[in-house]
Specification:
Elements lengths: L1 H4 L1 H4 L4 H18 L12 E11 L1 H12 L6 E5 L11 H8 L8 H13 L13 E5 L9 H14 L5 E3 L8 E3 L4 E2 L8 E3 L4 H10 L13 E5 L13 E5 L12 E7 L6 H4 L2 H5 L2 H8 L1 E5 L31 H13 L5
Helix pairs in contact: 6-7
Length: 347
């Protein structure tokens, strides 16, 4: 988020601030470790029904994952994100052009880079994108990611996607994930970056991917599982120790009717280190997941001062390595390994 992302340019962290950050981290680790970790379940997954979504940095990450793994992902729902490879390996580009100066985003340059990566087999063939289902949301009062950045994302997708792209660019909302009735006021900016807007983005994202759904029901708390992410990720991936998944009751039996799988990427300052499990529990995705047989995976990014990522943002500018936008990117490969595990594929 701009005010916090830019904070590193406004002041230097002194020893006292770092000590406080470490103490808070230890406290949160203790808090989240109170519930025993479980094994990430193996489910009967329809592997042609895997979709992604994300907010803000998670929106950029969802686009990144969708484009790189287009042979796997059939739909994407993006809230306040931006085009693939927008930052072009530069944090300053992320903060300036991608978030605040969208008129400077050269979509043709990003398309050329995408085609180059595909030709080198760093990402899946772009022909896979043609029939994918896309939903894009940007609030008219978003002060963090400029609404025109999402228009640039629409232009980017329109180069590859042949079916109609669903957009919602008229809702009067700030920067956050819009829900029917949970979160802070719709036009307010702040944690947990979940907004009470009388608008159900979770339903729109999932119905865009899977068609008309049965109405949401109350999620079952015990269906949220926490698991050790290091099983799937290198320490260099800068993922948090614990990841989460919502496993609907009907998806726990591997012999049952195949379930669908949705991956939701949180934004900066939205991991359990910042807002506990609010993003995992309160965006509205789990209610539809329970009533419609959709497993929801919630990867968790870690804050890391040494990697200049104190706000726990997923990597869309290169802090984990130059291949961050490729299938081989450390966070990308880790999430794909989680998907493969849930779907019963060998790691």
């Amino acid at each position: 988020l701009v005010s916090t992302w830019c904070g590193r340019f406004k002041f230097a962290l002194n020893f006292r601030n770092m000590a406080i950050a470490l103490l808070v981290s230890f406290a949160l680790v203790a808090l989240t470790s109170a519930a025993p970790l479980q094994d990430l379940p193996v489910c009967n997954i329809n592997t042609s029904a895997i979709s992604v979504s994300g907010l803000s940095a998670g929106g950029f990450m969802a686009v990144q994952f969708h484009v790189a793994y287009s042979a796997t992902v059939m739909a994407a729902g993006i809230v306040a994100g931006g085009p693939y490879y927008c930052a072009q390996d530069e944090f300053t580009e992320a903060l300036t052009e991608c978030m605040n100066m969208p008129e400077s985003i050269n979509v043709q340059t990003l398309i050329a880079a995408t085609d180059r990566f595909a030709a080198a087999q760093n990402i899946d063939a772009t022909s896979n994108l043609a029939q994918t289902r896309i939903y894009l949301y940007s609030g008219t009062r978003d002060t963090v990611v400029h609404p025109q950045t999402m228009k640039k994302l629409q232009q980017y997708y329109e180069h590859y996607v042949t079916r109609a792209i669903q957009t919602e660019f008229t809702q009067v909302s700030e920067h956050g994930f819009p829900t029917l009735n949970y979160g802070i006021a719709c036009t307010r900016l702040g944690e947990p970056y979940i907004l009470k807007c009388n608008y159900d983005a979770a339903q729109m994202i999932l119905e865009n991917a899977y068609g008309t759904l049965r109405p949401a029901v109350d999620p079952i708390a015990s269906n949220i599982v926490s698991f050790e992410q290091s099983t799937f990720a290198s320490p260099l991936a800068s993922l948090y120790s614990t990841g989460y998944a919502y496993i609907p009751s009907q998806c726990r039996n591997t012999s049952a009717t195949p379930c669908r799988l949705h991956v939701s990427f949180h934004g900066c300052e939205q991991s359990v280190e910042f807002v506990q499990q609010q993003y995992v529990e309160d965006t509205g995705l789990n209610g539809f997941a329970e009533s419609n047989g959709i497993v929801v995976l919630y990867p968790q990014c870690a804050k890391n001062i040494l990697k200049d990522n104190p706000n726990g943002c997923f990597d869309w500018w290169g802090y984990t390595g130059s291949d961050y936008v490729h299938k081989s990117g450390k966070q990308m490969a880790a999430v794909k390994a989680m998907i493969d595990h849930i779907a019963g594929k060998t790691l």
